[in-house]
Amino acid sequence: MTVELVLGPVAHGGFVVGRHDGKVLFVTGGLPGERVSVEVTERGRRYDRARVVEVLEAVPGRVEPPCAIASECGGCDWQFADQPTQLDLKTAVVEEQLRRLAGIDWGGRVEAVPGGLTGWRTRTRLAVDDEGRLGFRARRSHAIVPLPEAGCLIADHAPYDDATRVAEPRAEVIVAVGTWADTCLGQKLGIGPDPVRQQVFDRTFEVAADGFWQAHREAPEVLTRAVLEGLEPQRGESALDLYCGVGLFAGALIDSGCRVSGVETGNAAVALARRNVPEARFTAAPVERALRDFPDSVDLVVLDPPRKGAGEKVVRAVAGMAPRAIAYVACDPAALARDLAHFADHGYVASDIKGFDLFPMTHHVECVAILRARG
Protein backbone atom coordinates (compact mmCIF):
# COMPACT_ATOMS: atom_id res chain seq x y z
CA MET A 1 0.00 0.00 0.00
CA THR A 2 1.26 3.50 -0.90
CA VAL A 3 0.13 6.63 0.98
CA GLU A 4 0.99 10.32 0.84
CA LEU A 5 1.88 12.21 4.02
CA VAL A 6 3.98 14.99 5.58
CA LEU A 7 6.75 13.66 7.81
CA GLY A 8 7.06 14.69 11.43
CA PRO A 9 10.02 14.53 13.84
CA VAL A 10 13.03 12.21 13.70
CA ALA A 11 12.93 9.07 15.88
CA HIS A 12 15.70 6.95 17.35
CA GLY A 13 16.91 4.26 14.93
CA GLY A 14 17.11 6.16 11.64
CA PHE A 15 13.37 6.77 11.24
CA VAL A 16 11.14 9.78 10.79
CA VAL A 17 7.65 9.67 12.27
CA GLY A 18 4.59 9.89 10.04
CA ARG A 19 0.87 9.41 10.68
CA HIS A 20 -1.86 8.01 8.46
CA ASP A 21 -5.45 7.29 9.44
CA GLY A 22 -4.55 7.83 13.10
CA LYS A 23 -1.72 5.30 13.09
CA VAL A 24 2.00 5.98 13.57
CA LEU A 25 4.41 5.05 10.77
CA PHE A 26 8.16 4.77 11.26
CA VAL A 27 9.49 5.87 7.89
CA THR A 28 12.94 5.46 6.32
CA GLY A 29 14.29 7.58 3.49
CA GLY A 30 12.70 10.89 4.50
CA LEU A 31 13.46 14.06 6.44
CA PRO A 32 11.25 15.95 8.91
CA GLY A 33 8.84 18.31 7.13
CA GLU A 34 8.97 16.61 3.73
CA ARG A 35 5.84 15.69 1.80
CA VAL A 36 6.39 12.17 0.52
CA SER A 37 4.78 9.11 -0.88
CA VAL A 38 5.58 6.03 1.21
CA GLU A 39 5.13 2.29 0.85
CA VAL A 40 4.03 0.45 3.98
CA THR A 41 6.48 -2.46 4.39
CA GLU A 42 5.44 -3.93 7.75
CA ARG A 43 2.20 -3.78 9.69
CA GLY A 44 1.93 -3.96 13.45
CA ARG A 45 -0.74 -3.47 16.08
CA ARG A 46 0.68 -0.22 17.49
CA TYR A 47 2.58 1.12 14.48
CA ASP A 48 3.60 0.35 10.90
CA ARG A 49 6.91 0.63 9.10
CA ALA A 50 7.25 2.34 5.73
CA ARG A 51 9.81 3.60 3.25
CA VAL A 52 9.79 6.67 1.03
CA VAL A 53 9.23 5.83 -2.63
CA GLU A 54 8.93 9.43 -3.87
CA VAL A 55 9.80 12.83 -2.42
CA LEU A 56 7.04 15.21 -3.44
CA GLU A 57 8.32 18.28 -1.58
CA ALA A 58 11.90 18.16 -0.29
CA VAL A 59 13.30 20.25 2.56
CA PRO A 60 16.65 22.08 2.63
CA GLY A 61 19.41 19.67 3.57
CA ARG A 62 18.40 16.87 1.20
CA VAL A 63 21.20 15.80 -1.17
CA GLU A 64 21.75 13.05 -3.71
CA PRO A 65 23.19 9.96 -1.94
CA PRO A 66 26.80 9.36 -3.06
CA CYS A 67 26.49 5.55 -2.86
CA ALA A 68 24.75 3.53 -5.58
CA ILE A 69 23.16 1.12 -3.06
CA ALA A 70 22.21 3.70 -0.41
CA SER A 71 18.48 3.00 -0.74
CA GLU A 72 18.93 -0.80 -0.49
CA CYS A 73 21.77 -1.35 1.99
CA GLY A 74 20.94 -1.48 5.69
CA GLY A 75 24.15 0.27 6.76
CA CYS A 76 23.63 3.98 6.10
CA ASP A 77 20.49 5.82 7.20
CA TRP A 78 21.16 9.45 6.26
CA GLN A 79 23.15 9.50 3.00
CA PHE A 80 20.46 11.72 1.51
CA ALA A 81 21.09 14.44 4.14
CA ASP A 82 23.98 16.93 4.19
CA GLN A 83 26.29 17.04 7.20
CA PRO A 84 24.59 19.91 9.11
CA THR A 85 21.25 18.14 8.71
CA GLN A 86 22.70 14.84 9.94
CA LEU A 87 24.04 16.63 13.02
CA ASP A 88 20.63 18.24 13.57
CA LEU A 89 18.91 14.86 13.38
CA LYS A 90 21.29 13.21 15.82
CA THR A 91 21.12 16.13 18.22
CA ALA A 92 17.32 15.91 18.21
CA VAL A 93 17.46 12.17 18.98
CA VAL A 94 19.89 12.61 21.90
CA GLU A 95 17.78 15.48 23.27
CA GLU A 96 14.57 13.45 23.05
CA GLN A 97 16.01 10.30 24.65
CA LEU A 98 17.60 12.21 27.55
CA ARG A 99 14.43 14.19 28.20
CA ARG A 100 12.00 11.28 27.92
CA LEU A 101 14.01 8.57 29.71
CA ALA A 102 16.12 10.56 32.18
CA GLY A 103 14.29 13.85 32.64
CA ILE A 104 17.38 15.75 31.46
CA ASP A 105 17.07 18.92 29.37
CA TRP A 106 20.20 18.74 27.26
CA GLY A 107 21.36 21.96 25.65
CA GLY A 108 24.26 20.44 23.72
CA ARG A 109 24.82 19.59 20.08
CA VAL A 110 26.30 16.52 18.45
CA GLU A 111 29.75 17.52 17.18
CA ALA A 112 31.35 16.64 13.86
CA VAL A 113 34.82 15.07 14.05
CA PRO A 114 37.70 15.35 11.57
CA GLY A 115 37.52 13.25 8.44
CA GLY A 116 34.22 14.10 6.78
CA LEU A 117 31.34 11.79 5.93
CA THR A 118 33.17 9.08 3.95
CA GLY A 119 36.30 6.96 4.27
CA TRP A 120 36.22 6.88 8.08
CA ARG A 121 35.37 3.30 8.99
CA THR A 122 38.34 1.10 9.95
CA ARG A 123 36.41 -2.17 10.09
CA THR A 124 33.33 -3.42 8.32
CA ARG A 125 31.22 -6.57 8.60
CA LEU A 126 30.11 -7.93 5.22
CA ALA A 127 28.28 -10.99 3.98
CA VAL A 128 28.98 -13.19 0.94
CA ASP A 129 26.12 -14.08 -1.39
CA ASP A 130 25.66 -17.36 -3.26
CA GLU A 131 27.75 -16.06 -6.16
CA GLY A 132 30.71 -15.24 -3.91
CA ARG A 133 30.15 -11.46 -3.99
CA LEU A 134 30.74 -9.34 -0.90
CA GLY A 135 27.82 -7.21 0.23
CA PHE A 136 25.74 -5.88 3.10
CA ARG A 137 22.48 -7.08 4.59
CA ALA A 138 19.45 -5.10 3.46
CA ARG A 139 17.57 -3.23 6.18
CA ARG A 140 15.61 -5.65 8.42
CA SER A 141 16.40 -8.53 6.06
CA HIS A 142 18.82 -11.42 5.49
CA ALA A 143 19.00 -10.51 1.80
CA ILE A 144 22.50 -9.52 0.66
CA VAL A 145 23.02 -6.36 -1.39
CA PRO A 146 26.26 -6.72 -3.40
CA LEU A 147 28.87 -3.98 -3.00
CA PRO A 148 28.89 -1.42 -5.80
CA GLU A 149 31.94 -1.18 -8.02
CA ALA A 150 33.34 1.68 -5.93
CA GLY A 151 33.15 -0.41 -2.75
CA CYS A 152 31.77 0.91 0.53
CA LEU A 153 32.21 4.69 0.59
CA ILE A 154 32.37 4.98 4.38
CA ALA A 155 35.07 2.29 4.65
CA ASP A 156 38.72 3.28 4.97
CA HIS A 157 40.38 1.55 1.98
CA ALA A 158 39.48 -2.01 2.93
CA PRO A 159 41.14 -4.86 0.92
CA TYR A 160 37.97 -6.27 -0.64
CA ASP A 161 39.76 -8.11 -3.44
CA ASP A 162 41.77 -10.25 -1.01
CA ALA A 163 38.67 -11.08 1.01
CA THR A 164 36.68 -12.12 -2.05
CA ARG A 165 39.39 -14.55 -3.13
CA VAL A 166 38.61 -17.18 -0.47
CA ALA A 167 35.23 -16.14 0.97
CA GLU A 168 32.60 -18.88 1.12
CA PRO A 169 28.95 -18.26 0.16
CA ARG A 170 26.86 -17.07 3.14
CA ALA A 171 29.99 -16.38 5.19
CA GLU A 172 30.27 -13.32 7.41
CA VAL A 173 33.50 -11.42 6.78
CA ILE A 174 35.03 -8.78 9.03
CA VAL A 175 37.25 -6.46 7.00
CA ALA A 176 39.66 -4.17 8.84
CA VAL A 177 42.23 -1.76 7.47
CA GLY A 178 45.19 -3.93 6.48
CA THR A 179 43.56 -7.25 7.36
CA TRP A 180 40.39 -9.29 7.33
CA ALA A 181 38.96 -12.30 9.17
CA ASP A 182 36.36 -14.79 7.89
CA THR A 183 34.41 -16.02 10.92
CA CYS A 184 31.88 -18.26 9.18
CA LEU A 185 30.94 -21.37 11.21
CA GLY A 186 33.60 -20.60 13.79
CA GLN A 187 36.58 -20.88 11.47
CA LYS A 188 38.96 -17.95 11.25
CA LEU A 189 40.96 -17.26 8.13
CA GLY A 190 42.91 -14.09 7.55
CA ILE A 191 45.02 -11.92 5.32
CA GLY A 192 47.33 -9.39 6.91
CA PRO A 193 48.39 -8.95 10.54
CA ASP A 194 46.39 -10.34 13.44
CA PRO A 195 46.41 -8.69 15.89
CA VAL A 196 46.21 -5.28 14.24
CA ARG A 197 48.28 -2.45 15.77
CA GLN A 198 46.57 0.87 16.54
CA GLN A 199 48.31 4.04 17.71
CA VAL A 200 46.48 6.32 20.17
CA PHE A 201 48.51 9.32 21.34
CA ASP A 202 51.81 7.86 22.64
CA ARG A 203 50.62 4.30 23.24
CA THR A 204 50.29 1.40 20.77
CA PHE A 205 47.41 -1.05 21.14
CA GLU A 206 47.07 -4.52 19.66
CA VAL A 207 43.54 -5.54 18.66
CA ALA A 208 42.33 -8.88 17.28
CA ALA A 209 41.35 -8.64 13.61
CA ASP A 210 37.80 -9.67 14.58
CA GLY A 211 37.84 -8.04 18.03
CA PHE A 212 36.21 -4.85 19.25
CA TRP A 213 37.77 -1.49 18.44
CA GLN A 214 36.13 1.86 17.77
CA ALA A 215 35.03 1.91 14.12
CA HIS A 216 35.88 5.55 13.29
CA ARG A 217 39.60 6.11 12.84
CA GLU A 218 39.42 9.29 14.96
CA ALA A 219 37.21 7.80 17.68
CA PRO A 220 39.87 6.46 20.09
CA GLU A 221 41.53 9.85 20.45
CA VAL A 222 38.26 11.84 20.43
CA LEU A 223 36.74 9.69 23.18
CA THR A 224 39.93 9.43 25.23
CA ARG A 225 40.31 13.20 25.20
CA ALA A 226 36.68 13.67 26.30
CA VAL A 227 37.10 11.16 29.14
CA LEU A 228 40.31 12.74 30.41
CA GLU A 229 38.99 16.30 30.16
CA GLY A 230 35.89 15.29 32.08
CA LEU A 231 37.56 13.23 34.81
CA GLU A 232 40.64 15.44 35.29
CA PRO A 233 42.62 12.50 36.75
CA GLN A 234 45.22 13.30 39.38
CA ARG A 235 48.49 11.43 39.89
CA GLY A 236 48.09 8.70 42.47
CA GLU A 237 44.32 8.34 42.14
CA SER A 238 42.67 4.93 41.81
CA ALA A 239 40.57 4.20 38.73
CA LEU A 240 38.32 1.40 37.53
CA ASP A 241 37.82 0.79 33.78
CA LEU A 242 34.68 -1.29 33.20
CA TYR A 243 34.00 -2.99 29.85
CA CYS A 244 37.65 -2.09 29.18
CA GLY A 245 38.17 -3.97 25.90
CA VAL A 246 41.87 -4.07 25.07
CA GLY A 247 42.67 -1.24 27.49
CA LEU A 248 42.11 2.03 25.62
CA PHE A 249 40.94 4.12 28.59
CA ALA A 250 43.03 2.15 31.09
CA GLY A 251 46.12 3.16 29.13
CA ALA A 252 45.17 6.83 29.17
CA LEU A 253 44.53 6.74 32.93
CA ILE A 254 47.83 4.98 33.58
CA ASP A 255 49.62 7.62 31.51
CA SER A 256 47.90 10.25 33.69
CA GLY A 257 49.47 8.71 36.79
CA CYS A 258 46.51 6.68 38.08
CA ARG A 259 46.43 3.17 39.52
CA VAL A 260 44.05 1.26 37.25
CA SER A 261 42.06 -1.98 37.34
CA GLY A 262 40.06 -3.09 34.32
CA VAL A 263 37.24 -5.58 33.78
CA GLU A 264 36.24 -7.16 30.46
CA THR A 265 34.26 -10.29 29.59
CA GLY A 266 36.48 -11.86 26.91
CA ASN A 267 39.68 -13.72 27.76
CA ALA A 268 41.24 -12.79 24.42
CA ALA A 269 40.57 -9.08 24.90
CA VAL A 270 41.97 -9.18 28.44
CA ALA A 271 45.11 -10.96 27.25
CA LEU A 272 45.66 -8.11 24.77
CA ALA A 273 44.83 -5.50 27.42
CA ARG A 274 47.57 -6.95 29.65
CA ARG A 275 50.03 -6.64 26.78
CA ASN A 276 48.85 -3.16 25.80
CA VAL A 277 48.78 -1.75 29.35
CA PRO A 278 51.07 -3.94 31.50
CA GLU A 279 51.03 -1.32 34.26
CA ALA A 280 47.32 -1.99 34.98
CA ARG A 281 45.51 -4.99 36.50
CA PHE A 282 42.82 -6.70 34.42
CA THR A 283 40.13 -9.25 35.24
CA ALA A 284 38.43 -11.45 32.65
CA ALA A 285 34.79 -11.73 33.74
CA PRO A 286 31.38 -10.29 32.93
CA VAL A 287 31.12 -6.98 34.74
CA GLU A 288 27.88 -8.07 36.45
CA ARG A 289 29.70 -11.11 37.90
CA ALA A 290 32.75 -9.11 38.95
CA LEU A 291 30.70 -6.77 41.18
CA ARG A 292 31.56 -8.68 44.33
CA ASP A 293 35.25 -8.03 43.68
CA PHE A 294 34.88 -4.25 43.23
CA PRO A 295 36.90 -2.22 45.74
CA ASP A 296 35.10 -0.55 48.62
CA SER A 297 36.06 2.85 47.25
CA VAL A 298 37.65 4.29 44.11
CA ASP A 299 38.41 7.79 42.83
CA LEU A 300 37.43 7.44 39.17
CA VAL A 301 35.33 5.07 37.06
CA VAL A 302 35.05 4.72 33.29
CA LEU A 303 32.20 2.69 31.80
CA ASP A 304 32.05 1.83 28.10
CA PRO A 305 29.25 -0.77 28.04
CA PRO A 306 27.79 -2.55 25.02
CA ARG A 307 24.76 -1.12 23.25
CA LYS A 308 22.27 -2.35 25.87
CA GLY A 309 23.97 -0.25 28.57
CA ALA A 310 25.28 -1.13 32.03
CA GLY A 311 21.99 -1.63 33.85
CA GLU A 312 20.80 -0.79 37.35
CA LYS A 313 22.82 -3.47 39.14
CA VAL A 314 26.14 -2.22 37.78
CA VAL A 315 25.13 1.41 38.29
CA ARG A 316 24.28 0.73 41.95
CA ALA A 317 27.64 -0.98 42.53
CA VAL A 318 29.57 1.86 40.86
CA ALA A 319 27.77 4.52 42.90
CA GLY A 320 28.42 2.47 46.04
CA MET A 321 32.17 2.97 45.61
CA ALA A 322 31.64 6.74 45.92
CA PRO A 323 33.93 7.83 43.06
CA ARG A 324 34.57 11.55 42.79
CA ALA A 325 33.85 11.36 39.03
CA ILE A 326 32.46 8.86 36.51
CA ALA A 327 32.87 8.86 32.71
CA TYR A 328 30.15 6.98 30.84
CA VAL A 329 30.88 6.30 27.14
CA ALA A 330 27.72 5.34 25.28
CA CYS A 331 27.02 4.17 21.73
CA ASP A 332 23.25 4.29 22.26
CA PRO A 333 21.51 7.41 23.61
CA ALA A 334 18.52 5.42 24.90
CA ALA A 335 20.73 3.12 26.99
CA LEU A 336 22.68 6.14 28.21
CA ALA A 337 19.48 7.89 29.30
CA ARG A 338 18.19 4.81 31.14
CA ASP A 339 21.47 4.43 33.02
CA LEU A 340 21.65 8.15 33.83
CA ALA A 341 18.22 7.79 35.41
CA HIS A 342 19.56 4.89 37.50
CA PHE A 343 22.59 6.96 38.52
CA ALA A 344 20.30 9.81 39.60
CA ASP A 345 18.45 7.35 41.83
CA HIS A 346 21.79 6.61 43.50
CA GLY A 347 22.95 10.20 43.94
CA TYR A 348 24.98 10.84 40.76
CA VAL A 349 24.04 13.39 38.11
CA ALA A 350 25.59 14.37 34.79
CA SER A 351 27.65 17.56 34.97
CA ASP A 352 28.41 17.39 31.24
CA ILE A 353 27.20 15.36 28.26
CA LYS A 354 28.91 15.55 24.88
CA GLY A 355 27.75 13.96 21.62
CA PHE A 356 30.12 13.03 18.78
CA ASP A 357 29.24 12.05 15.21
CA LEU A 358 31.54 9.03 15.09
CA PHE A 359 29.22 7.17 12.69
CA PRO A 360 28.58 9.62 9.82
CA MET A 361 25.83 8.68 7.34
CA THR A 362 24.25 6.33 9.91
CA HIS A 363 21.81 7.01 12.75
CA HIS A 364 24.38 6.00 15.38
CA VAL A 365 25.95 8.55 17.71
CA GLU A 366 28.52 8.31 20.52
CA CYS A 367 28.11 10.23 23.78
CA VAL A 368 30.35 10.84 26.78
CA ALA A 369 28.67 11.78 30.05
CA ILE A 370 30.60 12.96 33.11
CA LEU A 371 28.84 12.29 36.41
CA ARG A 372 29.51 13.56 39.92
CA ALA A 373 27.78 13.08 43.27
CA ARG A 374 24.80 15.35 43.71
CA GLY A 375 25.82 18.31 45.86
TrEMBL record:
GO terms for biological process: rRNA base methylation. Residues 1-54 form the TRAM domain. S-adenosyl-L-methionine binds at residues 214, 243, 264, 304. The keyword Membrane does not apply. Signal peptide: none annotated. PROSITE patterns: SAM_MT_RNA_M5U, TRAM, TRMA_2. Keywords: Methyltransferase, S-adenosyl-L-methionine, Transferase. One of its GO terms (molecular function) is rRNA (uridine-C5-)-methyltransferase activity. InterPro entries: MeTrfase_TrmA_CS, NA-bd_OB-fold, SAM-dependent_MTases_sf, TRAM_dom, U5_MeTrfase_fam. It comes from the Bacteria. The active site is at 331 (nucleophile). Belongs to the class I-like SAM-binding methyltransferase superfamily. RNA M5U methyltransferase family. This is TRAM domain-containing protein. It comes from Tessaracoccus bendigoensis DSM 12906.
